[in-house]
Inverse folding.
């Protein structure tokens, strides 16, 4: 069997990094969705200084590179990509998982250009529908106002998706996004 895989290598310098890495892999395994990257297995090296997350290799790269190489996306192409991103968010939220770092670089593209949400390193499982994260992170340009003030909720992922949509429509390097966000 010929199977291409990508391996995320995490350098472990503290017990906290081990916990975060195991949590990231566990969250990836909980979600059964064509729109969210799946973890196929994990392992550590003998010394425990490195943790490896194995996942499918998606040959078409990420959405940031795709937009740079295809600056004139049609409305239909943008809508199709955005729809897939929204399905991924819905699938994550169905498991009470907040991505917390959605951006062009974290949207990968499958062989048929289906968007696949990846890099769940800052993702967290929420206790219930009304809970939120205090330890927020992620790219500032894509972060919701409530995230900027230390209170990320599920709606924060949709704000980030809106910023991704804006970037797809404008095909810019973030200049328009900066103007929209900061005036």
């Amino acid at each position: 069997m010929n199977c291409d895989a990508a391996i995320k290598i995490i350098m472990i310098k503290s017990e906290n990094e081990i916990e975060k890495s195991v949590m990231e892999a566990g969250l990836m395994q909980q979600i059964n969705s064509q729109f969210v990257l799946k973890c196929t297995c994990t392992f550590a090296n003998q010394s425990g200084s490195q943790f490896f997350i194995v996942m499918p290799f998606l040959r078409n790269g990420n959405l940031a590179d795709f937009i740079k190489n295809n600056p004139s996306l049609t409305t239909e192409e943008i809508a199709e990509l955005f729809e897939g991103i929204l399905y991924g968010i819905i699938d994550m939220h169905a498991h009470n998982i907040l991505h917390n770092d959605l951006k062009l670089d974290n949207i990968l593209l499958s062989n048929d250009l289906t968007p696949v949400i990846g890099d769940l390193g800052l993702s967290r499982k929420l206790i219930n529908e009304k809970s939120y994260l205090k330890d927020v992170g992620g790219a500032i340009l894509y972060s919701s106002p409530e995230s900027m003030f230390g209170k990320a909720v599920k709606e924060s992922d949709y704000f980030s998706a809106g910023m991704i949509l804006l970037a797809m429509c404008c095909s810019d390097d973030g200049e328009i996004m900066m103007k929209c966000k900061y005036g």
